[in-house]
Specification:
The chain is of the alpha+beta class. It has three domains: about 10-195, 2-Layer Sandwich (Heat Shock Protein 90), CATH 3.30.565.10; about 205-330, Ribosomal Protein S5, domain 2, CATH 3.30.230.10; about 385-555, MutL, C-terminal domain, regulatory subdomain (Ribosomal Protein S8, Chain: A, domain 1, 2-Layer Sandwich), CATH 3.30.1370.100. It is about 35% helix and about 25% strand. The strands form six sheets. It has an eight-stranded mixed sheet with strand order 5-4-3-6-2-1-7-8. It has a five-stranded mixed sheet with strand order 9-10-15-12-13, with helices on one face. A four-stranded antiparallel sheet has the order 18-19-20-25. A hairpin with a 2-residue loop joins β23 (about 460-465) and β24 (about 470-475). α12 packs across α16 and α14 (about 485-500) runs antiparallel to α15 (about 505-520). The longest helix has 23 residues, at about 310-335. It is elongated, with a radius of gyration of 29 Å. It starts with 8 loop residues before the first helix and ends in a 5-residue tail after the last helix. About 35% of the residues are buried.
Length: about 575
């Protein structure tokens, strides 16, 4: 007897389901796609236990009659394509006819539907992909799909699911991504009796952006719109200073389909160019309208990957439009008369200090010179402060030559060590606000803040939920009273999500370093002579004066020998 055999229909269906349904969020995505394609204007979603126990998606779309209801449970049954060539003209979100049978194969499913011309609807019950019952029932116009006990018959897949809060976060993210371009539709997501996300129909993209990103971010975003060689590009870009440590708020759509395509993400980052530090990502929403014949959406069962007929053209188009939009915005903000030739410093403006991680600079690569006696890196003398360069570097004269001190890095190191000592000794002094500042976050960010409020309080940051996405900052460490708290909390969110909890010395140090970065003197900030002297003298009081907590150098020396060699006083 040969070794090759045909798999049973049940096993084949479960294997196919594994390609379409990765987690509960996949079910929500597929069912929402069907509801949108059915012409729904209202979609209500309810989940329990992160979608494990229940996912219910109800819409007021076209509905199905009895025959269509039976057919929808069959694999490759669809109303959206007839032939292979139709794949290159499809504008619906779904088209394969795989979603419903794949979900049904690994759950207990009930579908209730009624068309507008029927007085009664029908209810179809399935278990493990097998039809158990179909009956007539009263129902509103539209379709309601209930998915219970997901992966009940595939325990190996079920054990790979994350915790209920994590799966819920994935569902919130999925709904947010799908809903963003469909502003005329209303969406609501409930977790049992609690509403997690409510998105009423609106008449503008900005209103939907406000609901997902928060009013402040949405209000700052820059609109882009242009057509290049048949590609219609539009969307919204955050100013470069509003960046994030993760790319989870970079949304890309092709013919209103939410996609995760590295080619397009790379094009957006390339468009920002040097405006972003390495490893940083903007808030961005990119809409691409393209002839369906020039894009292949049939690449992956999840339909979240696409392939373009001309990848390079699309990449360059997105990059160019993003770059030009940002350049035009900057030009509009800084239309000032050209300065005199002796005001070169003012021409380029102040140096902005980016908030976030730094990379360790390479070793000093100065001109080769004769061996000199090694001088300690610690400042063992009180240098003579000469002044500021570019309102960023403090220039000092020492016995060996010129000392350049980065004022932000120096003060950041000082603030970090003070915070660390106070934290280690449990003497972190906090100050309540007389008029507490409020900060606003997107729904997904708000959920993280709510989960991590207790852990933030260990660092002296006390928050109070004010309702919706708004929080009140009640008290903070004394040294950080003047920090821009919304900016800081947005920076700390990815750290909290990445680590899961504030524990361990490494995690605490990363959070304290971020606090120090926000609480330190900024580059481009003018200091008095007394402030400069005090800051330089404080370098002798810190344990590691050579680098800021992120690894960037605090100071650099230029010896008299090097200076004299520059002017050819020595050969």
């Amino acid at each position: 007897m040969g070794l090759i055999r045909i798999l049973s229909e049940k096993v084949a269906s479960q294997i196919a389901a594994g390609e379409v349904v990765e987690r509960p969020a996949s079910v929500v995505r597929e069912l929402m796609d069907n509801s949108i394609d059915a012409g729904a204007t209202r979609i209500l979603i309810k989940i329990e236990n992160g979608g494990r126990n229940l996912i219910r998606v109800a819409d007021n779309g076209a509905g199905m009659d009895r025959d269509d209801l039976l057919l929808c449970a069959e694999r490759h049954a669809t109303s959206k394509i007839n032939e292979l060539s139709d794949l290159f003209s499809v504008r619906t979100l779904g088209f394969r006819g795989e979603a419903v049978p794949s979900i049904a194969a690994i759950s207990r499913m009930v579908i209730t539907s009624r068309t507008p011309d029927q007085l009664a609807g029908f209810r179809l019950k399935l278990q493990g992909g097998k039809i158990k019952e179909i009956e007539e029932t009263g129902a509103p116009v539209g379709t309601t799909v209930e998915v219970k006990d997901l992966f009940f018959n595939t325990p190996a897949r079920k054990k790979f699911l994350r915790s209920a809060p994590t799966e819920t976060d994935h569902i919130v993210d999925t709904l947010s991504r799908i809903a963003l371009p469909f502003t005329a539709l209303s969406f609501r997501l409930d977790d049992r009796d609690k509403t997690l996300l409510s998105l009423p129909s609106v008449d503008s993209d900005v209103s939907r952006l406000s609901a997902l990103f928060g009013h402040e971010v949405a209000g700052l975003m820059i609109k882009m719109e242009r057509e290049i060689q048949g590609l219609r590009l539009s969307g919204y870009l955050s100013p470069p200073e509003w960046d994030r440590a993760r790319g989870d708020h970079l949304f890309v759509y092709v013919n209103r389909r939410s996609v995760r395509e590295r080619l397009l993400t790379h094009a957006v980052i390339e468009g920002y160019g040097s405006r972003l530090m390495k490893g940083r990502y903007p808030y961005a929403v990119i809409f691409i309208e393209i002839d369906p014949a020039l894009v292949d959406v049939n690449v992956h069962p999840t339909k979240q990957e696409v392939r373009f007929h001309q990848n390079r053209l699309v990449h360059e188009a997105v990059k160019t439009v993003v770059e030009e939009t940002l350049r035009q915005k900057a030009a509009a903000l800084f239309q000032v008369p050209a300065p005199a030739s002796d005001s070169m410093g003012e021409k380029f403006g102040r140096i902005g200090e980016p908030i976030g991680g730094y990379t360790v600079y390479p070793a000093d690569t100065t001109i080769a010179r004769e061996p000199e006696p090694q001088v300690p890196l610690m400042i063992k003398e009180i240098p003579v402060v000469l002044g500021q360069l570019k309102e960023t570097y403090i220039l000092c004269e020492t016995k060996e030559g010129l000392l350049l001190v980065d004022q932000h890095a120096a003060h950041e190191r000082r603030v970090f060590e003070k915070l660390k000592k106070s934290y280690d000794s449990a003497t972190l002094e906090c100050q309540p606000f007389l008029i507490p500042p409020t900060v606003e976050f997107s729904p997904s960010e708000s959920r993280t803040i709510l989960k991590k409020m207790g852990e933030l309080s260990q660092l002296g940051i006390t928050l109070e939920h004010f309702g919706g996405g708004t929080f009140v900052v009640r008290s903070v460490p004394n040294i950080l009273v003047d920090v821009q708290w919304e900016s800081f909390l947005r920076e700390v969110l990815p750290l909290l999500e990445e680590q899961g909890a504030v524990k361990g010395d490494q995690m605490v140090e990363r959070l304290l370093a971020l606090m120090a970065c926000h609480g330190a003197i900024r580059a481009g900030q003018r200091l008095s002579k007394e402030e400069m002297i005090s800051l330089v003298e404080q370098l002798d009081e810190v344990e590691v004066p050579t680098n800021c907590p992120h690894g960037r150098p605090v100071f650099k020396r230029v010896s008299f020998y090097e200076i004299e060699k520059m002017f050819r006083r020595v050969l």
